Amino acid sequence: MTGRTLVTGLGVVAPTGLGVEEYWAATLAGRGAIRRITRFDPSSYPSRLAGEITGFDAAAHLPNRLLPQTDRMTRLSLVAADWAFADAGVAPAELPDYDVGVITASHSGGFEFGQNELRALWSKGGQHVSAYQSFAWFYAVNSGQISIRGGLRGPSSVVVSDQAGGLDALAQARRQIRKGTSVVISGAVDASLCPWGWVAQLTSGRLSTRDDPRHAYLPFDERAAGHVPGEGGALLVLEAEQHARERGARVYGEIAGHASTVDPRPGSDRTPTFQHAVELALADAGSDPGDIDVVFADAAAVPELDRAEAEAITKVFGVRGVPVTVPKTTTGRLYSGAAPLDLAAALLSIRDGVIPATTGSRLSPAYDIDLVTDTPRPAPVRTALVLARGHGGFNSALVVRAADTPTHGRKA
Amino acid sequence: MAATEFTLPDLRTILLEAAGTDEDVDLDGDIADLDFEDLGYESLALLETAGRIERAYGISLDEEAFTEARTPRALIGLVNSHLSAARAA
């Protein structure tokens, strides 16, 4: 199949807003959600800030049959999936059994659920561990639960490559649509803001230890000192073009190109491959650098990683050759959920002709990029590039463009 | 010594804690002779339910007999036979 893969539905669960419009309004207003952690006492940990989702009442959205068997990230995923399908005007139950797939990414699985059961194990004994621990912690559980709830029996899987996984899952969804699946719900929602998840994240050495939310996560800034984790993400309804056109679907944009690369091992003589991922994604989309209207950066806020990203962008696009932005400064880094949320923001930028700002950061003179800071920048956006890097050398780049963009010059 | 008799209200409480209930199932209704599957409980929900009964009543249910107890009435009977065996011991 050579038809295009379109995005026809968005479901957003972010620290800055539940639902697409609440998130987007907060993003354009630059309202941040990074605060001192409230879900556990963070005072004894070196990092104490996070982007928490507040006001999410799972019982208000989900049948109680699902509550004893689900981690927080799964509950958020199920609701995001419901919202994405509703936004797309797709009722999965009305489509043929094998027409709809589920492909999500996961960073850590259901850590909070797992921590509670491990606590039951060591404090009370094996008899007290929930039978649901058998799957509730598992990386694939969000895909599985969305599939079971909606009766979605198309190709389903999970991708695990840290932050890059959020884009890699969408790329896998596009592959399945090209092979003939009509609809795939894809993206990621991660949430592991519990002591076990926190300690695991601290081992990366990349977390900010600052206590002032305004100065904790400052990518591409001279003051950059690591990132702040958050929870949430986005699920998107991806649909074969013909299927979407036949039902008269509203279209946000086209998943036009993707590439992923893996960096050489530490200490290797070979060069890092992030820039190559960008170039390959552009080639896959049939886009020239000049076609890209905005880059949603990975934005590690670790100086050497910021430098590597800024240099890769400058090499591909030229000195200050393309607007670069990091709306995740308002949410923290959401691991696998980050890039799908950035993709949702990119599609809303295309819809509304505005690039959201990187809040808080002042561009370091060391980087020759056009960082959009302070306030959103009105601009016609036809094509956007979303970047994501995962711990361990994963790089991923995805190009999305307005669906009515002429496709001449594209590879068949 | 734990409670001496296991009743339908006891089972309802444990089922709700262990696995919740389907929206279209009324656990307060006349469910004693309905198959657990028709009540929306799959094997894992029943495994969790069994674990909670064992913990609450200090008994160990025979796995095969438990699998064969397909209705609330059958399961309640099984639990009570364990409880009376424990009393007699």
Explain what this protein looks like in three dimensions:
The complex is a heterodimer of chains A (412) and B (89). With 412 residues, chain A is an alpha/beta fold. Chain A folds into 2 domains: 5-246, Thiolase/Chalcone synthase (Peroxisomal Thiolase, Chain A, domain 1, 3-Layer(aba) Sandwich); 257-401, 3-Layer(aba) Sandwich (Peroxisomal Thiolase, Chain A, domain 1), CATH 3.40.47.10. Chain A contains 12 helices and 16 strands. Chain A has helices spanning 20-29, 58-61, 72-88, 111-123, 133-136, 141-150, 165-178, 195-202, 241-246, 274-285, 303-317, 338-352, and strands spanning 5-14, 17-18, 34-36, 49-51, 100-105, 156-159, 183-190, 232-240, 253-262, 294-296, 323-325, 354-355, 370-371, 377-378, 383-390, 394-401. In chain A, strands 1, 2, 5, 6, 7, 8, 9, 10, 11, 13, 15 and 16 form a 12-stranded mixed sheet that branches. In chain A, strands 3-4 form a two-stranded antiparallel sheet. In chain A, strands 12-14 form a two-stranded antiparallel ribbon. In chain A, a hairpin with a 3-residue loop joins β15 and β16 (394-401). The longest helix of chain A has 17 residues, at 72-88. The radius of gyration of chain A is 20 Å and the shape is globular. With 89 residues, chain B is mostly helical. Chain B has a single domain (8-20, 29-88), classed as Non-ribosomal Peptide Synthetase Peptidyl Carrier Protein, Chain A (Orthogonal Bundle). In chain B, α1 crosses α2. The longest helix of chain B is centred in the last third of the chain and has 17 residues, at 72-88.
Brief synopsis:
Chain A is of the alpha/beta class. Chain A has helices at residues 20-29, 58-61, 72-88, 111-123, 133-136, 141-150, 165-178, 195-202, 241-246, 274-285, 303-317, 338-352, and strands spanning 5-14, 17-18, 34-36, 49-51, 100-105, 156-159, 183-190, 232-240, 253-262, 294-296, 323-325, 354-355, 370-371, 377-378, 383-390, 394-401.
